[in-house]
Amino acid sequence: MYRFVFTQLLSRIDPEDAHHLTVGALRLLSVTPVVKRLVHRRLAPRDPALRVQAFGVHFPGPFGLAAGFDKDAGCVEAMSALGFSHVEVGTITAHAQPGNARPRLFRLVKDRAIINRMGFNNAGASAAARALSRPRGVPAVVGVNIGKTKVVPEAEAVHDYVAGAKELAPLADYLVVNVSSPNTPGLRNLQAVELLRPLLQGVKEVADSTPRRTPLLVKIAPDLADDDVDAVADLALELGLDGIIATNTTISREGVSSTEPGGLSGRPLKARSLEVLRRLRARVGDRLVLVSVGGVENVDDVWERLLAGATLVQGYSALIYEGPLWAHRIHRGLSRRLRRHGVRDLREIIGRTAT
Ligand SMILES: Cc1cc2nc3c(=O)[nH]c(=O)nc-3n(C[C@H](O)[C@H](O)[C@H](O)COP(=O)(O)O)c2cc1C
């Protein structure tokens, strides 16, 4: 059914228009209490074996929606109802900004990939805080991903992230410092340890001061050299962060024909994303929560990431190709596989193939 809608309708219209159409429909679902609750009852993960606890937060399953889909926290309830165990909203910047000029979103259908250079288009931290303050009709775990406002110079980046964190940390189940998007000039320089340390320290102070102490994670790029991945991991441990999200989109164009500028995601990212996860696990063991994202398409991918040491797994690009039942299918498949292997608790398999 979705394949038909995709080939006959969505793939024929501009990708960003298709996205807005989808988000509009999802918002409609979010404001329809009865339907929303019915969908949630039908599609959200309910198998106790799928439950995960990470940094003190209970997740109904391991598979969530990666940042970038719900930039303004407008469809948290709808995406939770559709079966995502958590929704990472954002990237949200302290100040509203329009993002880059269109076109800025490209489908690479044959490669099962996406290229985007959105540039953190969002309505800003105050608008997101208002959206996140509204009472919800279905349970949802919400991560808030924050980034730097484009016009703010690198020297004032800490102040800008801290401003965003102050508004949003109290409303987040976990907070993510995004220093890895390729579409804000200079942003990825912040991954260098000497710049990253004061930034994470500043945001952590804010996250630690909320009534529940908001868990803090950092999201990294797949294009970091292996030594830099290790350096960020060591820093995260040193500062007492809760976890690392790996990875964001890549600037590499290996294996795809398009040379469109921006960040590449989806299937071509799978191998490097898994490689970074394995490296992180080897470095930190279970001292940090590892969230794996990049090229995840199906149950096999999620299974592989869990075995390699991820406690949570996220996806975005394959949603475009798989449709609204994607997360539900993944959790259902995972549930069956756990039963087949006699696993009653996901903790039994997390990191089992890690070295
Ligand atoms: C259109 C689009 C927009 C994105 N925007 C963001 C963003 O604002 N912040 C962020 O941290 N990641 C963003 N991402 C990256 C995803 O969260 C994810 O890390 C990446 O796409 C790899 O996962 P995937 O292969 O499952 O898509 C975006 C990805 C896409 C496709």
Automatic annotation (TrEMBL):
Positions with a binding annotation for FMN: 67-71, 91, 145, 178, 219, 247, 266, 295, 316-317
Regions crossing the membrane: none
Entry EC number(s): 1.3.5.2
Chain sites annotated for binding substrate: 71, 116-120, 178, 183, 248-249
Membrane topology: Peripheral membrane protein
Keywords for the protein's UniProt record, in alphabetical order: Cell membrane, Flavoprotein, FMN, Membrane, Oxidoreductase, Pyrimidine biosynthesis
Subunit structure: Monomer.
Name of the protein: Dihydroorotate dehydrogenase (quinone)
Organism from which the protein derives: Streptosporangium roseum (strain ATCC 12428 / DSM 43021 / JCM 3005 / KCTC 9067 / NCIMB 10171 / NRRL 2505 / NI 9100)
